[in-house]
């Protein structure tokens, strides 16, 4: 049987029988693959140390007769170790993995692999604001799935104005001017910029850290509602 090779990021690991493990990975060119890793939980397993979460790996595998292929070997390429040193970044990483796994089919484009890889890279940089990374990730996912809220104008079609407060209407995915609103044009601008720029560019915006903390709960609400997370 022909052996296949791919670069991969692990999405999920499930123990199976006494010594095996079923792993699900995402690849840049073959979508998502489910693999049986035989004997990987044995002390002398040569594969065990290479199938870590928050890492990129090279895998060699055989196609199975059903939906599960057989993992033959795995080589660790890059391990984003700083993620697991911080509980909040670890939790964010888990959420990113679960999000992409939930909302994508097995046959997906390479952009999803690229997004997860970039997310790990930013999470691994401890100097980068965690709130900003989370906002960028979910705004990107919302944009890629066609669920991005209206960030061009308010619910009445008017442009966003400085010194005007807004509330967000979740059913209409739009902001509405309200003198008692929770958001302003600067916070909304961050969401709009996040559709075009990655965290390494957004971090240069004046006051971005405070703005990110203020707008993050809304981004999480929109993502939960739109993506059913």
Describe the structure.
With 229 residues, the chain is an alpha+beta fold. It folds into two domains: 3-79, OB fold (Dihydrolipoamide Acetyltransferase, E2P), CATH 2.40.50.140; 83-227, de novo design (two linked rop proteins), CATH 1.20.1440.120. Helices cover 35% and strands 24% of the residues. It has six helices and seven strands; from the N terminus they run βββββαααββααα. It has helices spanning 87-103, 110-124, 130-144, 185-193, 199-202, 208-227; strands spanning 3-16, 20-26, 32-37, 55-62, 69-79, 166-169, 174-177. The protein has a five-stranded mixed β-barrel. A two-stranded antiparallel ribbon has the order 6-7. Strand 6 and strand 7 (174-177) form a beta hairpin. The radius of gyration is 20 Å and the shape is elongated. The model has no long low-confidence stretch (mean pLDDT 93).
What is the mean predicted local confidence, pLDDT? 93
CATH architecture assignment name of the largest domain: Up-down Bundle
How far is the N terminus from the C terminus?
Answer: 39 Å
Give the percentage of residues in beta strands. 15-25%
Portion of residues within helices: 25-40%
Number of strands: 7
The level 1 CATH classification of the largest domain is Mainly Alpha
Radius of gyration: 20 Å
Order of helices and strands: EEEEEHHHEEHHH
How many structural domains are formed by the residues? 2
Shape: elongated
Question: What class do helices, strands and sheet pairing give?
Answer: alpha+beta
């Amino acid at each position: 049987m022909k052996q296949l090779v791919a670069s991969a990021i692990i999405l999920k690991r499930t123990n199976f029988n006494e010594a095996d493990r079923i792993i699900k990975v995402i690849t840049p060119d073959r979508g998502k693959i489910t693999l049986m890793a035989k004997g990987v939980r044995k002390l002398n397993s040569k594969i065990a140390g290479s199938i870590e979460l928050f890492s990129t790996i090279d895998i060699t595998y055989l196609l199975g007769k059903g939906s599960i292929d057989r993992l033959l070997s795995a080589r660790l390429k890059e391990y984003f170790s700083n993620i697991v040193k911080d509980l909040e970044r670890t939790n964010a990483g888990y959420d990113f993995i679960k999000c992409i796994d939930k909302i994508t089919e097995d046959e997906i484009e390479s952009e999803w692999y690229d997004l997860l890889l970039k997310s790990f890279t930013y999470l691994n940089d401890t100097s980068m604001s965690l709130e900003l990374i989370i906002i960028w990730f979910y705004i990107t996912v919302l944009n890629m799935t066609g669920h991005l809220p209206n960030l061009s104008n308010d619910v009445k079609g008017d442009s966003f104005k400085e010194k005007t407060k807004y509330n967000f209407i979740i059913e209409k995915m739009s902001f509405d001017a309200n003198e008692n609103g929770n958001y302003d044009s600067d916070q909304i601008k961050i969401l709009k910029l996040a559709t075009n720029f990655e965290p390494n560019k957004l971090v240069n915006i004046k006051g971005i850290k405070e703005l990110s903390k203020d707008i993050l709960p809304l981004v999480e609400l929109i993502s939960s509602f739109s993506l059913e997370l």
